[in-house]
Amino acid sequence: MSGLDKRLNAFRPDLADMRLAELVSATKFVSGRLMQICDPVADIRREPRPDAPVDSQGLYGEKVLVFDDHEGWCWVQLQTDGYVGYMAQNALTSRLTNATHLVSASRTFLYPGPDMKYPMTAALSMGTGLSVTSEAETRGTKYLALASGEYIIAAHTIDAHNRPRDPVTVASRLLETPYLWGGRSGFGIDCSGLVQLSHALCGRSLQRDSDMLRNGAGTLIGHGADHPPLLRGDLVFWKGHVAMMEDETMMIHASGHTMSVVREGFRDAVERIEPMYGLPLAYRRIVA
Fold first, then answer.
1. How many C-beta atoms lie closer than 10 Å to residue 165's C-beta?
2. Are 11 and 2 in contact (CB under 8 A)?
3. Cα(287)–Cα(198) distance, rounded to whole angstroms?
4. What pLDDT, in 10s, does the model give residues 163-218?
5. What would the pLDDT profile of 141-155 be if each residue is shown by its tens digit?
6. Nearest to 167 by CA among 223, 218, 99
7. Which segments of the chain does DSSP mark as H helices, in order?
8. C-alpha–C-alpha distance, residues 229 and 235, integer Å
9. Each residue of 73-103: b (16+ CB within 10 Å) or e?
C-alpha cells in the first residue's frame, strides 16, 4: 500500500476514499457521506471495537465523512483536521447544522429550557460548535436557544465570527484539566490536543498529533539548545510531546508527569525530561 499517513488518509485493502484512487490500491473506492457528531465527545478509535486505543476525539457539531459502517461502527474522517479512525455509529446523525457560536468555557451544560435550575441534558467542551436560533433571559441570566431545542448559558459562548486572538490565554482556561491520551476536549486532553484546541478557538486549524505539529506548524526556529529567545505562543517539541510557551521562561502543557494541564518553568522541564527523552527536538513559531 501507499506510504501515505493512514491517520490522515482513509484507505484499507478493501476500501478507500475516492480522492485517493490514483494514489492507493483498494478493492473499492467510495466518496463518503457527510454526517455530524451528536454526542458531546466522540472517540476516534484505531479499530472498530470498544477496547481499541483512542487516537483522537471529535466534538459535538463537528462533521465527518463516513466511508463505511458495520456492526455499530463507522469508519470516518473528521473534517476539522482530517483525522481518520472508527467512531461509534450512535454518536453520529445525518441532520447537519452550521455553527454560529462556539463554547468558550472549559466545560458547560445544556438545559431543556432557559433556566439553570432545570436538570442538565448534556455537558459540552470548549470548542464545541453550536447552531443558535434565538436568545432568552431568566432572572438576569442570558441563554442561547439551539437548533436542538436546548439552551446554553450565553456567557459560556462566543460568536463564531468574533474569536479570541491569543491561544495561550485560551489554554490557560484549561489548567488542571486531567491528562487523557487521545483527549481533545475540556473533559480530558493530551499535549497536542491542548495546542490544537487552543488554536482552533482562535480560528486557526492545526494538525492533530505532536509529530504532525513538529513537522508543519508555523515556522521552525531552532533545535535542541540552539534557539532564539522564546516568545509567547512558541511551541517546544520533545519526542512525543509538545508544550506552549507563556513567555520566555514559563510554558503550559498537558503533562503526563502530573497527568494534568499545568504551568511549568521551561528550564525545569528541560532538566526533568532530558534523562528520559533528551533535549527538545524543535521549536516552532506560529504568527497570527
1. 10
2. yes
3. 14
4. 999 999 999 999 999 999 999 999 999 999 999 999 999 999 999 999 999 999 99
5. 999 999 999 999 999
6. 218
7. 167-172, 191-201, 210-216, 266-277
8. 12
9. bbbbbbebbbbbbbbebebbeeeebeebbbb
